[in-house]
Write a structure and sequence with these properties.
mainly beta, AttH-like fold, 13-stranded antiparallel beta sheet, ten-stranded antiparallel beta sheet, 53% strand, globular
Length: 389
Amino acid sequence: MKTTAFRKLLWVWTWMVLGFSFGGHASEGGLTTTDGFAVPQPGRRFVFPRDHGSHPEFSVEWWYITGHLFTTNQEQFGFQATFFRRSLASEGGSAGSSNALFGTDQIYLAHMALVNIGSGMFRHQERLNRSGWDANSSQITLDVFNGNWSLRFAPANSNTISRDLMELRYTLGGDISVRLDLTPKKSLVVFGTNGVSRKAAEPTASSHYLTFPRLSISGNLIQNGKAKAVSGEAWMDHEMSSSQLGAGQVGWDWLSLQLFDGREIMAYRMRRADGSTDPYSTVAWVDTNGLVSHIGPDQFKWVAMEHWRSPKTSAEYPSKVQLEAVNPVSGRTEIFVIQPLVADQELTGKVGGVAYWEGACSILDQTGKLIGRAYMELTGYNNSLKGKF
């Protein structure tokens, strides 16, 4: 590949993470970015299964699943599967037009990972493909793929699909195959205010944020030709936006907590250049009935208790975190200690050019008692998101 094309490919991935237009202008359909992409608007009425599919009017979209797997003899694994879609603007600046360099207005990046908690083995792989026969996403239902990696609703019969069962299929190299069936244990929730999750002061830095906070898992994991039946629980996010970071922000810290008492918590801390928490950070509590309540940064604290330095990128990540958050129902502060199950769960960004830490964790109370399981994402710690724009 020519050097200029390769550099632009890396910029595309950086745009995917950062969102590259902080300004915007009004249009008949609502606010858009300066290059013509849609900005999430309050009051959107989601229609399913259509809104489980792709939305090319937004420049950035991802389908993201993480979870914890157990074999019948109690081996434990963690997994991540993320499918990204990115719309490119044409040279003239119109959203969704064909791009001469790539030959398409859509590109697809995907990240897959698996960690063996007992052995500490962590494997991950990334792919970047143009839209077409090797990568695509449906605009009418959940059906996204990148090569032989796929996430879609399972067929109910020869004529219909089920909206109650999802199939996730991926491989890692030639020796690992993951085949999981995912069934929602709780209804879909929408994070944010009136359907919009704000990430920064700029109105364009926002998303529609749809989540299945708890899914049951059944399936199998094949390694070196040996199949193991697995079960467990997963978390699924689906976000669409045209910008994720605002001015002065360098990255984010994100948590999905699944507590044994039937509650879930989603937290994102938009991190500023001085390490402080941006005012548009939030913690969302999902109660046992699936009702969502949000609190702002004045009602929670994120405290890094320990750190881990990557031998591959030299990035230093928080490796143990304490989240103190006010329960909006009881008014009491609850404290959760997030402990990574394996220290090295860094995706090094060989394809996309952005390294970040994404890992399986335990949730402990202050006495050290296990009270749930979590996944944590840490971005911007190796300066990959810093100083690009």
